[in-house]
Write a structure and sequence with these properties.
The protein is mainly alpha-helical. About 85% of the residues lie in helices and about 0% in strands. It contains five helices and no strands. Helix 1 packs parallel to helix 3. It is globular and about 45 Å long.
C-alpha cells in the first residue's frame, strides 16, 4: 500500500513542479533558473515540515517521498547549472549552485524547527 501513496504524491508533485517552474520562469528574463530554484526550496521546506512533524509512515510516503520527490528536481538543477557554465555564465552557475544548496538547507531546517 505504501507504494500507492508514493505514486499518488508523485502524481501531484510532478505536474505541480512543471507548472510552477514554467509560471515562475516566464516572469524572469535573467539566465538564473528561478523556477527550478523555487520548486527545490519549496520542496525542502515541505520535507522539513513533514519530518519535523513526525507524521505517520504513510503520510511521509505520500508527502515526503511522493510529493517532494517529484516536486524537487536535482537532475534539472544539475543540468541548468552545467548549461550555464557551458555557455560561459560561470557567475550565474556558481550563484545557482550556492544559492540552491544554502536556501534549500535553510528552508528545510527552518520548517523542521517550526514543525517540532
Amino acid at each position: 500500500m505504501t507504494w500507492l501513496l508514493v505514486a499518488i504524491g508523485a502524481a501531484v508533485g510532478a505536474p505541480l513542479r512543471y507548472l510552477t517552474d514554467r509560471a515562475i520562469q516566464s516572469r524572469h528574463t535573467t539566465a538564473f533558473p528561478w523556477g527550478t530554484f523555487t520548486v527545490n526550496v519549496t520542496g525542502c521546506a515541505i520535507l522539513g515540515a513533514v519530518a519535523g512533524a513526525a507524521v505517520s509512515t504513510e503520510l511521509y510516503a505520500l508527502l515526503g517521498t511522493g510529493l517532494c520527490g517529484a516536486l524537487t528536481t536535482y537532475s534539472t538543477f544539475s543540468y541548468e547549472t552545467f548549461r550555464l557554465a557551458g555557455t560561459a555564465r560561470w557567475r550565474v552557475a556558481l550563484a545557482n549552485a550556492t544559492a540552491s544548496v544554502l536556501a534549500g538547507t535553510a528552508a528545510l531546517i527552518l520548517a523542521f524547527e517550526l514543525a517540532t
